Amino acid sequence: MAVxxxxxxxxxxxxxxxxIKRESAPFAGCWALPGGFVRIDESLEESAQRELSEEAGIAxxxxxxxxxxxxPDRDPRERVISVAFLTTVxxxxxxxxxxxxxxxxGWFAADSLPLLAFDHADMIALAMQRVKAN
Length: 134
Hints:
This protein is an alpha+beta fold. It has 2 helices and 7 strands.
């Protein structure tokens, strides 16, 4: 079980999304959403908060569950089901601090993203639909 977090910059007119650069395989050196495996003693939200803090330096975000992603081939290592969360922050008020297994973190225009790891492009697309619908 894993969690992934779609973070939008709420202060921008055009959608900006937070990505981290992965240090480890699979997809080492590729951009991805912050996220990772749920620890045995964590709730899903606790895991998402921890991963967001460890990989980007963002703490205490207001998270909303977005969707469960469970395609059998979404992770080349093994069968991994991910619960995606959505949050919006003001990027000007956040100092990104990549850590854990993230070597870099940055804001990217949601309409011109780099090639992403896993099925993270699908997660971002769904999050954009959800935000536009509200």
